[in-house]
Design brief:
Radius of gyration: 19 Å
Number of helices: 6
Length: 147
């Protein structure tokens, strides 16, 4: 795979990391070898994703008679908002860096929704989507997941 001018974006609900694939050369046994490794560009936390529902709903006194369905709907709405925010950040990142190609990984349960939230110009840059949570994967092991 051609790694030159590639950005890797990995995310989970509430966190997003972006890496630029950097080329380096080393001498091995008298030969100059080319190696690629991801270098962290940004690491973002979407704070709202880490809050519990009772931290977001301000009317604690009124929660006594709350319908369970309403809470479930509010949780779903919060998740959708976080996914849309992640899509905006990814679009802005790609617009700013203008990479030749983008590799994306997002939590399996939400990867499809994130892809739907991206605009067509961003989707055109994405060469591969891996539906997995790679957020805690060490940077030097990321390329294996996209090879």
């Amino acid at each position: 795979m051609d790694w030159s001018d590639t950005v890797i974006v990995v995310g989970a609900l509430g966190e997003l990391k972006a890496y630029k694939v950097v080329e380096s050369q080393r001498e091995v046994n008298g030969e100059l070898k080319t190696y690629y490794h991801p270098e962290l560009i940004t690491d973002l936390d979407f704070i709202d994703a880490h809050k519990k529902l009772h931290e977001v709903v301000t009317d604690e006194a009124g929660r006594f008679g709350h319908n369970i369905g309403e809470e479930h709907e509010l949780q779903n709405e919060r998740k959708e908002r976080i996914i849309k925010d992640a899509a905006k950040v990814i679009q802005q990142l790609i617009d700013t860096l203008k990479p030749k190609s983008v590799l994306l990984s997002y939590t399996k349960a939400y990867a499809h929704k994130l892809e739907e939230a991206l605009d067509s110009a961003t989707k055109a840059k994405i060469k591969k989507i891996v539906p997995a949570d790679l957020i805690k994967t060490p940077a030097n092991a990321l390329l294996e997941h996209f090879a």
